Structure formats: structure tokens, C-alpha cells
Amino acid sequence: MTYAAAVLLGVAAGMLAGMFGVGGGILFVPTLLALGLGQLHAEATSLLAILPTVAAGTWRQHRYGNVRWHAALVLGVGSIAGVEGGAYLAVSLPENVLRKLFACLLIGVAGQIAWRARRG
Amino acid sequence: MLIGLVAGFFSALFGVGGGIVIVPLLVLLASFELRPAAATSLAAIGITATVGAVTYAFHGDVEPLYAALVGVPAAGGAIAGASVQQRVPVRTLSFLFAALLIGIAVRLLVT
Predict the structure, then answer these.
(1) C-alpha angle with apex A42: B79 to B71, nearest 5 degrees?
(2) Less Cβ crowding at N or C end of chain B, within 10 Å?
């Protein structure tokens, strides 16, 4: 994987984020894996890469009047305990198991995007 | 709050934002429309990913240069994606993205 390809996948991840309200990690992680990072490092690095992505996406969506700030705050604060549990589990799992689980997640996400597209 | 908790768990386990959990649950359980659900999810992910990145940074697992390599172009992509979502039906693009994700999943499973 070249750096140019990584940049392109970054743009694609951002579009996915802006359109579907996700962070883009679903594409960041495979891109970082292809650049040679291990599963755990790729996931950790993905979380950092998500920050500029959602900052830009939120700013745009706020201007369109779509953001419900109170709900976002409740969700975000509620996620903190989950984050700590998830990180603990990720660190203790073998990397190849984590990778297979991630692949299953991708299939679920693909199904969900198709479902939303059908719903309109 | 419970949706957030589940989303946070997914987020840290898989290095994703958690929006994949947040958006459908907001639509199904909190009767949000799709666009506000997506927008609200992005704002919530900002908090989730910050906590996740800091947690992993303590473990020494974060590579900031690689994060910038994909994250900065993605910021541009996110602005484009939000405009696209606002203006046009995204059906075709959705199916393309779904196909791309299936392709990546198959590669990860067989290698």
C-alpha cells in the first residue's frame, strides 16, 4: 500500500463518515493494517484519526441544523465506561482473533448500510 | 446513555467511532430521522474517540503520524460526505460502500 492510496482511502473514510454518521474507523483500520501496523496499533491509531474527521463532519452537520447536542452529550458521556471495557478486552485478546472479529463487524456494517439505503 | 455505553464498548474494541451502533439505535429506539441521527452520532463520537485515543495512548499503541496520514484527508472527505448526504439520495454510493466493506472483510478473513 502506497501513501497515496492511504490518502485516498482516508478521503473515502471521511465521506463515509459525513454521509452515515460514523467515524470512518471502519476504513481507517484496514488502511492502517495494509500500511503494516498490527491490529491493536491500527485500532488505537484509528481512534486518533477519527477526531479530525468527526470535528469536520460535526461542524458541517451543525450548519445544516441536524445535530441534537443534548442527545450527543448524553451518548458521548455514556460511552466512556464502554470505551474502558472495550479497550481492556482488545488489549487482552490475541491480535488474530481481534482481526477476525473486526472482519465480522465489517460484514455487519455493510449489511446495515445497504439496509439504510433501501430505507431511503 | 445505554446506547452510548454499548457504542463505547464497540468503539474501543474495534478502533471505530461507534456510530455504527449509535445511528441505527437512535433511529429504532429514539425515533430519530436518519440525517439528525447521523449528525448527532458524529458529535457523540468526538467524545468517545477522544477517550479511546487517550486510553490507548497510555498503552503506547497510538501512531500519531499514521493517524494524520489518513485522518487529515478524511476531514476533507467528511465535509464532502455531509454535503452529499444533505443534497442527493445516496443509494448508489451506499451499495458501493457496502460492497467495498464486504471485499475488505473477505480479505481479512482469508489472510
Answers:
(1) 20
(2) C
A51 → closest Cβ in B23, B38, B50? B50
Q: Which site among A2, A7, A9, A20 would you substitute to test the B interface, given the most B Cβ atoms closer than 10 Å to its Cβ?
A: A20
Q: Encode pLDDT of B16-48 as tens digits.
A: 888 888 888 888 888 888 888 889 999 999 999
Whole-structure pTM value: 0.89
The full 3-state SS of chain A, as one line of letters, equals: CCHHHHHHHHHHHHHHHHHHCCCCHHHHHHHHHHCCCCHHHHHHHHHHHHHHHHHHHHHHHHHCCCCCHHHHHHHHHHHHHHHHHHHHHHHHCCHHHHHHHHHHHHHHHHHHHHHHHHHC
The count of C-alpha atoms lying within 13 angstroms of the C-alpha of A106, restricted to the half-sphere facing its C-beta, is 25
What the block records as the C-alpha cell of A7 is 490518502
> Which ipTM value was assigned to this complex?
0.87
Structural domain for A24, as ranges = 3-119
Mutate which: B47, B88, B101, B106, vs A, most A CBs within 10 A: B101
Domain count, chain A: 1
